[in-house]
Amino acid sequence: MKVLVIGNGGREHALAWKLLQSDKIEQVVCVPGNGGTASMQGCQNLSLAVDDFAGISKYAINNDIPLVIVGPEVPLAEGITDYLQSQGLMVFGPRKEGAQIEASKAWAKALMAEAGVPTAKAAVFTEAAPAKAYIQSEGAPIVIKADGLAAGKGVTVAQTITQAEEAIEAIFQGQFGAAGSSVVIEECLLGQEVSVLALTDGLTIRPLLPAQDHKRVGEGDTGENTGGMGAYAPTPIATPELMARVQIEVLERTITALKSRGIDYRGILYAGLMITPDGDFRVLEFNCRFGDPETQVILPMLETPLEDLILACIEQRLADMPPIAWKQGAAATVVAASGGYPGAYTKGKVITGFAAAETAGAIVFHAGTKLNAAQEIVTDGGRVLNVTGLGADFQQAIAQAYAGIQHIQFDQMYYRRDIGHRVLK
């Protein structure tokens, strides 16, 4: 079977890598892919834009590729699944209507209220003045979110009213483009964030291993929010007892609410949770796709063939599948980023050390990379690589990831040196 994977990040490299471990998968085509997918045996890149739905469809049909897996949220929100399904292709990822759960935080908040999903108190505004008045009445700290898609960067945890008002001004003045046509203002919840990615066929929903991301750029969880600087799984703070509650109170209630709206949601439902100091939880937001960098620690732990799970979701037979099988132990990944990220950074820096990192036992997933004319791997984004380690426990997994990243080199490379600090304590 051939598979086409949409996207060019570390998540998509991990998806292609996992699929190619199966003897049922003969080839993976990545659109547009990156330097890692271009270099992997059994994988090739196709230089099309992720929103070129007609071009993607034509290529898949002409090359006998029946299955498309969509990595990023933007093409899902723009309706890629609807289009490709209309052309007779199987697609893993929700249709446009279901993808609103990530594309609009306000829409997701309304769905959670309807479903009885525990979440933070929030209000939605389309103008700055009433938003600022609300902030004055609520006080700080408070969370300001651009309503639409902002590549993981549209959230400000404001410690003061002044900070919150500045965030409101920036959003309404176009910092995040169309994503900032409205804002969601939420109470600030304290605790630890956990990512629960779940597979669903629209009827049944099954969680994958709970993971913990490190969103802040600086060590000690300081500095600006990013798309994620590292992750580990399975996070011990998501106990079996807590996950049993999440299954009922979050995952099943959400799928039921989607069904009640006539939405046939098949793909990944990703709940970002805040685990409060008293051990309770609230949903911060939903995503409609695999997380990044969570996928880079979840898939290396997966024993069940990925394509079997994906096809079961598409064909609405997830309930008939045996329990998902996992490796014992833990996984951790460290992001190597371009200097300046999440702000301005330069591209085109030559990267070395891949073979030595893999000899040290790490798995290197490419994110912002490409092959240049000289067939060198060079930087091509803010988050450049994910260096993943596996181990019998977190100490081993984290040590292996850092042992691998010591061999990676490119000009102005930056990475956090405290990934997994909570579990190591």
Automatic annotation (TrEMBL):
<dbReference type="InterPro" id="IPR011054">
    <property type="entry name" value="Rudment_hybrid_motif"/>
</dbReference>
<dbReference type="InterPro" id="IPR037123">
    <property type="entry name" value="PRibGlycinamide_synth_C_sf"/>
</dbReference>
<dbReference type="Pfam" id="PF01071">
    <property type="entry name" value="GARS_A"/>
</dbReference>
<protein>
    <recommendedName>
        <fullName>Phosphoribosylamine--glycine ligase</fullName>
        <ecNumber>6.3.4.13</ecNumber>
    </recommendedName>
</protein>
<keyword id="KW-0464">Manganese</keyword>
<comment type="pathway">
    <text>Purine metabolism; IMP biosynthesis via de novo pathway; N(1)-(5-phospho-D-ribosyl)glycinamide from 5-phospho-alpha-D-ribose 1-diphosphate: step 2/2.</text>
</comment>
<feature type="domain" description="ATP-grasp">
    <location>
        <begin position="109"/>
        <end position="315"/>
    </location>
</feature>
<dbReference type="InterPro" id="IPR020559">
    <property type="entry name" value="PRibGlycinamide_synth_CS"/>
</dbReference>
<dbReference type="InterPro" id="IPR013815">
    <property type="entry name" value="ATP_grasp_subdomain_1"/>
</dbReference>
<dbReference type="Pfam" id="PF02844">
    <property type="entry name" value="GARS_N"/>
</dbReference>
<dbReference type="InterPro" id="IPR016185">
    <property type="entry name" value="PreATP-grasp_dom_sf"/>
</dbReference>
<dbReference type="GO" id="GO:0046872">
    <property type="term" value="F:metal ion binding"/>
</dbReference>
<keyword id="KW-0067">ATP-binding</keyword>
<keyword id="KW-0658">Purine biosynthesis</keyword>
<dbReference type="InterPro" id="IPR020561">
    <property type="entry name" value="PRibGlycinamid_synth_ATP-grasp"/>
</dbReference>
<dbReference type="InterPro" id="IPR011761">
    <property type="entry name" value="ATP-grasp"/>
</dbReference>
<dbReference type="GO" id="GO:0004637">
    <property type="term" value="F:phosphoribosylamine-glycine ligase activity"/>
</dbReference>
<dbReference type="GO" id="GO:0005524">
    <property type="term" value="F:ATP binding"/>
</dbReference>
<dbReference type="InterPro" id="IPR000115">
    <property type="entry name" value="PRibGlycinamide_synth"/>
</dbReference>
<dbReference type="GO" id="GO:0006189">
    <property type="term" value="P:'de novo' IMP biosynthetic process"/>
</dbReference>
<dbReference type="Pfam" id="PF02843">
    <property type="entry name" value="GARS_C"/>
</dbReference>
<keyword id="KW-0436">Ligase</keyword>
<keyword id="KW-0479">Metal-binding</keyword>
<dbReference type="InterPro" id="IPR020560">
    <property type="entry name" value="PRibGlycinamide_synth_C-dom"/>
</dbReference>
<keyword id="KW-0547">Nucleotide-binding</keyword>
<dbReference type="InterPro" id="IPR020562">
    <property type="entry name" value="PRibGlycinamide_synth_N"/>
</dbReference>
<comment type="similarity">
    <text>Belongs to the GARS family.</text>
</comment>
<dbReference type="GO" id="GO:0009113">
    <property type="term" value="P:purine nucleobase biosynthetic process"/>
</dbReference>
